[in-house]
From TrEMBL:
The protein's name in its UniProt record: Glycosyltransferase involved in cell wall biosynthesis
CDD domains hit by this protein: Glyco_tranf_GTA_type (cd00761)
Classification lineage: Bacteria, Bacillati, Bacillota, Erysipelotrichia, Erysipelotrichales
Keywords of the record: Glycosyltransferase, Transferase
The organism of origin for this protein: Dielma fastidiosa
InterPro entries, alphabetized: Glyco_trans_2-like, Nucleotide-diphossugar_trans
Domain spans labelled Glycosyltransferase 2-like: 4-165
Keyword Glycosyltransferase carried by entry: yes
Highest rank taxon of the organism: Bacteria
Pfam families the UniProt entry points to: Glycos_transf_2
One MF annotation (Gene Ontology) recorded for this entry: glycosyltransferase activity
């Protein structure tokens, strides 16, 4: 078996057929589909059963609800493929994705192969988004540098199964698990291939832009605690210091802070700023000397000058936009 495609399912009956049809329409045929039903309360299992009756390449795992990380891990346990792919059940893929990505993977025995993606919006418009891996990488320093820019999602990549021999799995019970997963995998990646085509069709679902309070917002902090703890245990903090420092600051002062602003709750936002600044001050007090900020343009300037004033500007700009 060349490829195992793991598809976690929870409350996606509306999109599941399109997802499965796109996988079954692949020009590449040496694969298995492992669907993991994470106790979905809708009619997803009815659809799964229907497809299993027709397509022998489909296996289904039914399990108690544990979240998408737990579902992906369950699929990994039984995956028999030389390569692994994760596809979310509310997205779909182009028919030539696996043929071209497997061909790339086998061309130089890459550990990881990335592709670009299309964001699909409700109004029918699309936006192509880069994986930010612009060329094939074999050199240790080049692979390290790619940590500072790689798109962290698992579903625009295929992985050689040897990457999972080191025990790295998705962390159960946290949000934003994608980011943590790819950073914890990096010490074992010796080569990265890229195909600059948008194979993944990432559907942007309609709904409220603002959020209600959820303590899991602070999982961004937990994720980075887990990542840094892993590198410390492996004795790799010194080797990867600059890349981890830049990435941690970027995620906490940009992505995390912007996400917190979307809640339109100033008290919550201030808590997020406090926690982010406390962690950066503790772990990376000299981050402004980091070499990667010089090439980061306006975002780098924002990160270097981040303080409570600039944070508040982000908050009020976001709230006004939402309002």
């Amino acid at each position: 078996m060349k490829l195992s495609v793991i598809v976690p399912v929870y409350n996606t009956e509306r999109y599941l057929r399109k997802c499965l049809d796109s996988i079954l329409a692949q020009t590449f045929t040496d694969y298995e589909i492992i669907i993991v039903n994470d106790a979905s309360p809708d009619q997803s299992q009815v659809i799964i059963d229907e497809y299993m009756q027709v397509h022998s390449c489909i296996t289904c795992i039914k399990k108690p609800n544990g979240g998408i990380s737990d579902a992906r891990n369950a699929g990994l346990k039984i995956a028999g493929g030389e390569y692994i792919s994760f596809i979310d059940s509310d997205d779909y893929i182009r028919e030539d994705m696996f043929e071209k990505m497997i061909k790339k993977a086998e061309s130089e025995d890459f550990d990881l192969v990335c592709c670009d993606m299309d964001y699909i919006f409700e109004n029918g418009k699309t936006k192509t988004v880069s994986s930010h891996i612009e060329s094939d990488l074999h050199d240790f320093e080049a692979i390290k540098e790619s940590m500072t820019r790689i798109y962290p999602a698992p579903w625009n990549k295929i992985y050689h199964r040897r990457l999972f021999d080191h025990g790295v799995r998705f962390t159960k019970g946290v949000w934003y698990e994608d980011m943590e997963f790819i950073y914890r995998l990096y010490p074992y990646i010796k080569s990265i291939g890229t195909v600059k085509e948008p194979f993944n069709q990432y559907v942007q679902h309609p709904g409220a832009i603002t959020y209600t309070y959820d303590e899991r917002l602070f999982d961004y902090i937990k994720n980075w605690q887990h990542i840094l703890s892993d590198y410390e245990k492996l004795g790799l903090m010194a080797s990867y210091h600059d890349e981890l420092e830049f990435s941690c600051v970027r995620y906490l002062y940009a992505t995390f802070i912007k996400r917190a602003a979307n809640y339109s709750d100033k008290k919550l936002f201030d808590q997020a700023v406090d926690k982010a600044m406390a962690m950066i001050h503790e772990r990376f007090p000299d981050y402004k000397k980091n070499k990667y900020f010089k090439g980061a343009g306006l975002k780098g300037l924002y990160l270097l000058t981040f303080n409570r004033l600039t944070a508040n500007l982000v908050y009020y700009k976001t709230v006004n936009k939402l309002g």
